[in-house]
Design goal:
Shape: globular
Number of strands: 19
Distance between the termini: 41 Å
Order of helices and strands: EEHEHHHEEEEEEEEEEEEEEHHHEEH
Structural class: alpha+beta
Strand content: 35-45%
Number of domains: 1
């Protein structure tokens, strides 16, 4: 495989292309790819549970939003935060590991203001894949919960990952304002014809009923009528009246601008080139549980990083075989699997211990999170 100047683009070697073509030859357009075992050379060496943290790579933008007393300005800051995570991606066209059932990933954050953040994710379903996640910063009164339910489909010269699911951001210190966010889709294009490349496309929304605001975002994909990559166009509107207040334009991998529709003033909303990713604090693998992402996939990751595709393939097969055997054993014993850390009610996953968290007492909440999720 060869990466070219655009890091979202890659040229496959002959052997890799043959393997991919053999798989494609078994598919029909529109077919779901959830049960297709993909070759390891297209894998990004980390689990989807960890990949989700890219959306929290710049949490300072969200902490700034909480400190803003103006609801409209606060809403814009949440939109900025949401748009800040898409530029972080693997070089070339890669997809993260599909987490195994019951897999978890957890990490902590330390912020300049002295507050702490806690992220915890669990794979609550394998077929169909559902990843649930929880983030909290008790000192700032911030809670994020959500789930990702990707569905992959073969579309001929491209493959699409439809990013079903949603995120709920709760600002408890702002009268429990809730921001509901949906995701755009991901595409691998040029599989058969042209150069294979990665794109984000489709519609996404950020909505806050308490602020009476909604942002509609349209992530553009390339095509006959649109040749520029990584563009996004959005509008912030008043929910109650439909009045357009702001327009957003630019590239999600570069600079984005926001224009007030009343006075026509345009300002820089986001420049991803000057952002610094916040460090994840993760326990060393030897201290992790067997079902924690980095430890679970450790041998696959080591092989991929060493360029040893044969070993990576074998270790990936070992993980998949163990998962099949565990499923067969449950079926034989007539046992059903249920998530350890998240509950499902009305099609919404919530952390089981969340109702017991006293978010009005930051130290007490931090202690309970650490004792329940990080021991």
């Amino acid at each position: 495989m060869t990466l070219i100047e655009n890091t979202s683009t890659e040229v496959l070697g002959d052997s890799s292309k043959r393997i991919l073509l053999d798989i494609i030859g078994q598919l029909t357009s529109g077919m779901e790819l959830g049960r297709i075992s993909l070759p390891v050379f297209i894998l990004e060496p980390l689990s989807m549970l960890e990949r989700i943290t890219n959306f929290s790579a710049h949490p300072n933008l969200l902490l700034e939003a909480i400190d803003d007393d103006d609801p409209e300005s606060r809403f814009i800051s949440v939109v900025r935060y949401f748009l800040s995570g898409w530029h972080i991606k693997a070089k070339g066209v890669k997809k993260p590991y599909n987490p195994v059932l019951g897999e978890i990933f957890r990490c902590q954050y330390k912020f300049d203001d002295g507050s702490k953040g806690y992220y915890f994710a669990e794979q609550v379903s394998h077929h169909p894949p559902i990843s649930t996640y929880f983030f909290a910063n008790p000192q700032k009164g911030l809670v994020i919960q959500g789930d990702l339910r990707p569905k992959s489909r073969f579309l001929g010269n491209s493959a699409a990952t439809l990013m079903h699911g949603s995120t709920r951001i709760n600002m408890l210190s702002r009268n429990s304002e809730t921001y509901e966010i949906t995701f755009p889709n991901a595409y691998a294009k040029g599989i058969l014809i042209g150069t294979m490349h990665f794109e984000i496309g489709g519609h996404s929304t950020v909505q806050c009923k308490e602020s009476d605001l909604v942002c509609y975002l349209d992530f553009k994909t390339t095509g006959i009528f649109h040749s520029h990559m990584n563009r996004v166009h959005g509008h912030i509107k008043r929910l109650s009246t439909g009045q357009t207040l702001y327009e957003i334009t630019g590239g999600w991998d570069d600079k984005l601008y926001i224009k007030n529709t009343q006075d026509k003033e345009e300002k820089l909303l986001l420049d991803v080139n000057v952002l610094h990713r916040h460090e994840l604090i993760v326990e060393p693998e030897e201290r992790q549980e067997l079902n924690e992402s980095r430890r679970c996939w450790s041998l696959v990751t080591q092989a991929l990083n060493a360029g040893d595709m044969e070993t990576a393939t074998q270790e990936k097969c070992n993980i998949e075989e163990r998962q099949r055997q565990e499923g067969d054993l449950r079926e034989q014993n007539k046992k059903t699997w249920s998530p350890k850390y998240f509950d499902l009610q009305n099609d919404i996953y919530t952390l089981k211990c969340y109702s017991s968290l006293n978010m009005n007492n930051a130290l007490e909440a931090e202690s309970m999170i650490e004792n329940t999720l990080f021991q």
